[in-house]
Amino acid sequence: MGRQPCCDKVGLKKGPWTADEDKKLINFILTNGQCCWRSVPKLAGLLRCGKSCRLRWINYLRPDLKRGLLSDDEEKLVIHLHAQLGNRWSKIASHMAGRTDNEIKNHWNTHIKKKLKKMGIDPTTHQPLPSPAVDQPPPESERTESKSITFEQSTISTDDSINDDKIIESNDVLLVSSSDFCIDEIPVIGPHEILLPPPLPDQSSPTTSCSSSCSSGGASWPNAMGVAQSFEDYCSEIVNIDIWEQDFGDVFDLLGDYESDLKGEDAMNLESSWEMMIGDDQI
DNA sequence: AAGAGCTGCAACCGCTCATGA
DNA sequence: ATCATGAGCGGTTGCAGCTCT
Question: Which of A105-109, A191-195, A220-224, A229-233 has the lowest mean pLDDT?
């Protein structure tokens, strides 16, 4: 006997959810909690399959969801996590409170992929794309051996012998480079220098808030040395991450702190989210 | 102004995997 | 061992809104 389909498709509604359907689902889950999705549509009075209800709840109706585009900080975090986890969107989403795997996947496919490709970075491997993908390589006369830092060359030891002067040199290269990102100019960084998301919005650091960075237009992110850098520069550093996989325990510990902060922030917004969604009288 | 083409996002589909009865 | 179920995933579709010509 084969597996029973998740729902009887005859007579079930498909396509966009209406406000009335949303309200029914919200009210049901508020009253009963999340349980046995298969029975949810029947009990909630919805002509939807359980899977559709679950997706609608997880991807859209959950009160702890953030709305709107991913902030620059979140985008950075997605790239960080994708470099380590690959296309495991749910794992990535689990590190980003208020965001869903579907949302992150969509954002990755529509925004981040393009950005990385434009910068000559393979979004799948986070490695430089083969040279033909890089637009208009500079003339031979303009290339210098010393400037080129390949990934093979970047495979350096992870001890503390990384010379700060060298990093400054690399940063200098970046500073003098044009706005067109060149993978040959990636600075070498150590695991202790891997960038973490800037502090979340809080009372003590208002300038790092999402809204401020988003509204400012050209957001800049501090590198390991606290120097403001562009998105391109930032990405040029993170593509080196997998070189030091063994050192990522500390990084993920810190990412965990980041997640905790997000949760705290979201908790504050929880009630207002519900109010907006279903009205004060139903809370 | 209008139609075509493009873009981004919500939603769906079909599949695998994990888990518990 | 088998089956039902939910979770998760990659791929895809449909549509509204935007941009281009």
Answer: A191-195
